[in-house]
Design goal:
With 88 residues, the protein is an alpha+beta fold. Helices cover 22% and strands 32% of the residues. The protein has a single domain, classed as NE0471-like N-terminal domain (NE0471 N-terminal domain-like, 2-Layer Sandwich), CATH 3.30.2020.10. The chain has 3 helices and 7 strands; from the N terminus they run βββααβββαβ. The model has no long low-confidence stretch (mean pLDDT 94).
Length: 88
C-alpha cells in the first residue's frame, strides 16, 4: 500500500508528492478545484487549496476532503512526472 510521505504546494493547483515508494511526482488538481459541490468549491481559493496536510498517508483539507495516495500516484504516473526521489 503506497502512502504520501511529503506534499509541497508548487503554485496554482499543483502539488509535488513524495510517495512511500521513494518516487516523487507532481499532480495538477485544477480539474478537482473546478468541480461543483461543497467539497471542491473551497479549493478555488488559493489559500484554502494550499492549506492541505497529510492524514494517514492521504492528501487532505480541513473541510474533510481526502484524496487517496493510490489515485494521486496513478495521476502522477499518467502525467509522466514520477521520478526517483531519495531512497525509500
Amino acid at each position: 500500500m503506497i502512502k504520501i510521505v511529503r506534499a509541497t504546494h508548487r503554485g496554482d493547483c499543483r502539488v509535488e508528492l513524495e510517495f512511500s515508494s521513494g518516487e516523487v511526482g507532481q499532480v495538477d488538481l485544477a480539474d478537482l478545484a473546478q468541480r461543483p459541490g461543497i467539497m471542491a468549491t473551497p479549493l478555488r481559493d488559493a489559500a484554502t487549496f494550499g492549506a492541505f496536510f497529510l492524514e494517514l498517508g492521504a492528501l487532505a483539507w480541513s473541510n474533510g476532503l481526502e484524496l487517496s495516495p493510490e489515485g494521486l500516484y496513478r495521476k502522477a504516473r499518467a502525467a509522466g512526472t514520477l521520478r526517483k526521489g531519495r531512497a525509500a
